[in-house]
Every structure is written in C-alpha cells, then in structure tokens.
Amino acid sequence: MKKVGRKVHLMAPESSVRRIGEGSFIRLNDGSILFAFTEFLGGREDEDIARISFISSTDEGENWSERTVLFEKGKNDVNIMSFSFLRMGNGDIGAFYIVKNSDGSDTIVMRRSSDEGKTWSEPQNCLDALERPDYFILNNDRPLKLKNGRIILPLARHTIYDNSQELSVGELVFFYSDDDGYSWKKTEQELKTPFPNDKIGFQEPGLYELADGRIWCYIRTLLGYQYECYSEDNGETWSTPEPNVFFSSPASPMSVKPFKDLTVAIFNPIPEHILRDDDAEFWGRTPYVMAIKKKDESNFTQEKLFYLEDDLNNGYCYPATLEGEDYLLIAYYHSNNTDCCLNSTKIIKVMYEELI
C-alpha cells in the first residue's frame, strides 16, 4: 500500500504544555490559514487544565507561526477542549468547543467572529434545550453545515448517574440550528447500542452529506468496526446503526471529508490480531490510513487505500482537514516516539495527484 503526504509541521509538548491536539483549520478571507487546537497544561488527561491556541500560515501550510493563545478557560471551568471552526452562512467564523464543568458535566459552546478572528463574541451554550446536565463529547472538526444551511452537531452523551462519578455507555444525540447558529434544538431520536454487554456504547460520531442528499453518520465503537446509519430528512431521524465492515477499527474516531471530486475517510484499521505484539499504549490507534472514492461512487475499495502513517511504533488519532486548490492538509495527534498517542500534533500535506 502506497504512503502519501509529507510533514509540514510538528508541535510537540514542552515543560508547561503536556499535550497538543484536537484542532480544526479555517481559511481566512485574506487567503491565510488558521489552525486552532487544545493545549493541555500540567497534564495530558482530558480533565487537566487546557486552553485553545492557534498557529497561522500565509503560504498554503508550508510554514507556520508560533503558537498564540486564542481562548482561556473561564474562572469556574475545569478546562476547554476539542475545537472546531465553521464558516457560518453570514460569513462569520464559528468556533465550537467543549467546556468541562466542575460537576463533571460538559457544555458545548459556540463563539462568533465577524472580523476574521480578531474579536469574538461571548460563549453561547448550544445545549440550552437539555433538561439536565450530562457528559457530552463533540469531537474536533465535527460540526456539519448542510447544503440547505442547517448546521448539525453530532454528540455522544454519557449520562452522569446521580450521586456518582460513573458514566453510562455512550448514546448519540443531535443538535441543529436553522438560523445560522443563533439558536439550537435537539432532535427527538437518540441512538443507543443494541448490545447489553457493550462496554462503551456509541461514541464520537461524525457526519458527511452524500451526493444524493442523505447524511451519513459514522460512529466509534469497541465492536471491531465503525458503525454507521443514515438520515434522509436532514438529521431528524436515523436508520438503525450497523457495522461497516470496510472500516475495521479500534475505539478510535474516523473522519470523512470532501476533497475536490473525492470523498476521503481517515481511520485506524484494526491492528489487534494474534500475529501482532500488544500495543496497548496506543489503544490500537496504529497505523493510520486514508480511503478515497469518487463522490458519486457508492463504496470504498481496498484498491484506493493509502498509508498516512505506517510506523507501528507510534499511534495516531483525532484528525482535522483543510482542502486547498490541489492539496489536503491533515492534522492529527502523533505519539512522537512516546508511550501515548495523545501527545504531539503533526500536520501533513497530501497532494491530489498522489491519489489519482
């Protein structure tokens, strides 16, 4: 299998920053590129103090600025993490991220900038429609704006049991906005694992709008594959989730994005079999591959699989992408020769001509 892409940047932890990742790209009106991400301070666990920082490039991702802080956590927040950019319908830049609260719950917030990131609105709670707080996950680079203008946030919810630090297995809920992000509603349908012994349930969903107008939802599981379901009514209702046997996978998120006339899927094929040494420190998140197909084609095939990373001594996860004129920028966690894949962020550039 052919390896594609070349490294254009690597951000590694230092004494005050222990983990760097879970980011998102956006192109500004002047042509420059921002990449914003989470910096974890003092530790590398999800509950450690964290902030959102960014770097920028003025030469199509070949060179990058020094890191600059974008958002600090609030006084009463545990941290802020898992960042997404989205160009809004009115031209504003939308910024989405998780706020971890002191009671163990999470809030998904949105901020807007009408001046290309120079100033930002105060955080807006996207989950106001909820009756009670819970533990929510919105992966980085996940909000989807449909062709009709609707914005959908695919979320995994883990219910916080009363008087307990324990969480339920994951179930999927979807929030949407039909007014360009100024208000949010929750769809009625929720998606739950059908297996009573499933240890983690459905986690870290992603969305992709297909050429025929359906929405494809792909789901992290511990069941050996990415599961999938479809909506034919702009995310209001969903088919029964089933395994997609092409996308074998450990408990690691996949990302599916458009690139020119292609659909690209970035994922970890499942590596845990009897001929492999244990790689528990990476949770099975190695190697890293990309599958491609024409947007009007129905299925991915093995003939169109490419390595992004083939070094099995490192782990990789949580990608973000930006489409250029003839290239795709991809940023993701890289273990960087340490014992944990939640370590550094590597940015690579994949040329379109490498894939055809």
Shape: globular
On the 0 to 100 scale, the average pLDDT is 94
Amino-to-carboxy terminus distance: 14 Å
Contiguous helical run count: 0
Element pattern in H and E: EEEEEEEEEEEEEEEEEEEEEEEEEE
Spans with pLDDT under 50 lasting ≥5 residues?
none
Compute the number of strand runs.
26
Q: What does the main sheet amount to?
A: 6 strands, antiparallel
**The CATH topology:** Neuraminidase
Percentage of helical residues? under 10%
CATH class category label: Mainly Beta
How does the helix and strand content classify structurally? mainly beta
Number of domains: 1
Rg calc: 19 Å
Task: Provide keyphrases for this structure.
globular; 4-stranded antiparallel beta sheet; 26 strands; 6-stranded antiparallel beta sheet; mainly beta; 46% strand; Neuraminidase; 356 residues
Give a structural overview.
With 356 residues, the protein is mostly beta strands. It has one domain: Neuraminidase. 0% of the residues lie in helices and 46% in strands. It has no helices and 26 strands. The strands form six sheets. Strands 10, 11, 12, 13, 14 and 15 form a six-stranded antiparallel sheet that branches. The chain is globular, with a radius of gyration of 19 Å. The two termini are 14 Å apart.
